[in-house]
Every structure is written in structure tokens, then in C-alpha cells.
Amino acid sequence: MSERSRRDVLRGLGATGTVGIVSLAGCSQQDGGGGGGDEATPTETSMDGGGGDTATETEGSMDGGEPISLGSIFPITGTNSAYGGGHQRAFNLAVEEINGSGGVLGGRQINPINRDTEGSPSRAAQKFRTMINQEGIVGLVGPYSSGIGTTLAPIARDNRVMEVSNGNTSPALATAGVNESNGVKYYGRTSPNDVQQALVMARVLNQSIQAETVSFLYVDNPYGQGLAEAASQNFDGETLNMVAYSQATSDYTSTLNSVFQGDPDAIGAVMYPGNGRTILQQWNQGGYGGQWVGAEAILSPQLLSDLSDIVEGMYITSPQTANSQTFQENMGGQSNITQFAPHAYDATYLMGFALEKAGEASGTGIARNIRSVSRPNSDSDTQVSVAGFGAGKDAIANGDAIDYDGASGTVDLNENLEPVVPYRILQVQGGEAQMVEEVPLSYFEGKI
Q1: What's the topology of domain 6-191+322-404?
Q2: How far apart are CA 27 and CA 224, in angstroms?
Q3: Taking Cα atoms as reference points, which of 236, 165, 167 lies closest to residue 207?
Q4: What is the per-residue pLDDT across 28-73, written as a single tens digit (0 to 9) for each?
Q5: What is residue 61's DSSP assignment?
Q6: CATH code linked to domain 194-319+420-444
Q7: Does the reported pTM lie above 0.85?
């Protein structure tokens, strides 16, 4: 990418669109699959150039103008591969824009190291260690699933490499990544904590449906269990059953029988489209009854259209995300933007700004500065948005504070280095999810 003129940068800043409804399904699924090595493939590439600190020297800055290596790790293969390609494109786009704006720290380019989780926590961990020890990364964007995120966060912590997930939502990861020796937190995320979604699911159960009893059905992974348990804790009525479903089966009759013991008024569901399609069809065939309230993972336009008669009236909770026209254009169109791809772009931008503010290429430098560049500091902050890295870098060089509002939203990171975002309550009508209520940020004050 050629270096942008300041006029082009400012034009990009003015092109951010309005908030819209997007599907964020599967944000914490532990995708299946395995095999393969760390060799660079068409989807696992690194640009020429290198350098960088080793795992034991991540707090020192590199010499001269050597490139600074940042890694990404997304589900390029495995059951979540439908999403990973978009995540990687967004990461690489952000790197391209950073480099096109003159890089960071006096002209040093970012060297992107892209890797595939293969849907395996152990393989992802092996690749992360290789990126640290052999390729000298100081930061990692990803992973997508909370199951893999739980495995990688301790590695980031112990090696003092900053990790920012674009898709982990499990409440268990809120305090992950704190290195006890220096008190620095090396794990953050641009995706929201499911504590928020649990509050919204409970709001639907308590106020929209006014249910007295509920059962929860959830996918058997950290995402499903964490969200279901938190929603149950915030439900005012009686929780009859907490039932996990296996992703490795196709007959859910016994699972549904367990869910509907006691004839609950409603079912709080945390399930993915693949298994969810089968579960909903078997629920309909079995005549179980009850009102469904689904988490965002089931928000698949194709599923809702295909099962329009079955899912009519279902409530679905969904975090809001920005709908940036500039981001869509730079990604080559909406079809290239998969769920949580905007969050990968924002994570990369925040790392770039944190490097610039830190004045050194280190994971600790990123970790100590990433929150301040993400959120308002004063009324005089320089506002920065999509495609505006050059403007933000100039402001930091002038000693000014910046507030980055990105492709996924405002991305104001809290003390746990995670954003709090508005939510929407949707209801399926005629095979489409229609917004019926907006849940503003003020609703979450004092509850998180």
C-alpha cells in the first residue's frame, strides 16, 4: 500500500458508518480438526524480514529499523474455518494500513506472522510458542475460540507477549494473563465479555417473557457453560435444568427430554447453527413447547430462513457492532467480512498505537499502553477511527492523547482490557431477526 496523504486519512475518518446488526455467532466455539505443521502455507505466511526479541527478552526494544513481528492465529481450518479467513484478512489489512502510514517507532514496519489454530488448543499453543521463540513476535491477535484462548493466555503471560483476542467471550477469561512478577496483564480482547449477554438474556426472560421457570441448553465448552450459568444467576425465577449438549452426536432426543423435565416456560439456549439446526428440528418434531431465548451464536440468517416456521418468535440477544463503510470497502466488500473480523482489525490497530505510545517494541510496552489509546482520556483527545493510523500516530508523536473508535465499535477497554458494548434484543419474524429493543450501555452500569 502506498503511504496515505493526510487528506486521505481524514477522508477515511469521516466515512465510518452507523451501528448495525451483525451476526457474531460461534464466538467461543472450540473448533475441531488437527494435524499439520508450522510451515508457511498459502494461509500461514510471514513477510520477509524479521528480527525481534526472544521469549526471554521481550521487554527490550530492537535495534535500528528492523521490522517488528506481530502474530495472528485464527481458525483457517477446522469447523470454524468459515470465520478464520475473514479474521486473517482483517489483521493483514490493518498491518498494511499501519505500514502504509510509515510504520511505527520511527519508520519500522510490522511483519505479520499468520498461523492456523487447526481447531486444536495443543497445536495452537505449539505454534504460539514457535512464533515467540523463533520469530520474535511481541504481540498476538487471536484466537477466536475461548477454549483455545484459555490455553494461550498463560503462554502470553509467562513470555510477556501481549495477546488480544478478537472472539473470546468466556467470562472466565476476564482476569486472564496477569504476570504476578510485574503486575502487567498480557491478555485482552476486543470482543465483549459474555457477562453482558447473560444480563441481556436474563432481561428477556424476566421482562419480555416474564417466565417463572427456565431450563438452559448449552454447547459443552467454556463459552456455552459460562454464558448459561451467568444467565441462570441473573434470572429471577427458578432454573429447572442445566443441560450441556455434545457436538459429536446427531440424536438429541434424550438431551431435549432432560431440558424439558418439569415443563419450563422458556429455554435459554447457547448453541451453534450446525447442531442447533438439528436440535430445533427435533424439538419441533417432539412437540415439546416452550419459548426459546437464544444467544448470539444461533444468529445465522440461513438457519433462520430455512427454519422460519420453527423459529418464529424466538428471541435472540446480540452485541452491537459498528458498520463502517470504510472498513467494508477496504476489505473488498461485506462478503469478505466474517463474524468478529472487525474485532481482529481493531485489535491490530490498538497494538500499533500502543507500540507507538510505548516508544519500544515489547509485549510489556503494548500491555501497559493499550487501554489508554482505546478510550477517552479528556475532552481534547484526538479521535481516530478506521484507516486513520497515520492521524493517530501523528497525535501520539505530538504528545496528544488519542481515542480509537474502530470497525467493531468504540472499543473502550476497561481495567480487564475488554470492552463493554450496547446490545440488541432481536425476535425472529418471517425468517429474519428483527430488532425489538436496544439495551444501552447505561443498563450495564453497576452490574458488571
Answers
A1: Rossmann fold (3.40.50)
A2: 10
A3: 236
A4: 444 433 333 333 333 444 443 333 322 333 343 344 489 999 999 9
A5: P
A6: 3.40.50.2300
A7: no
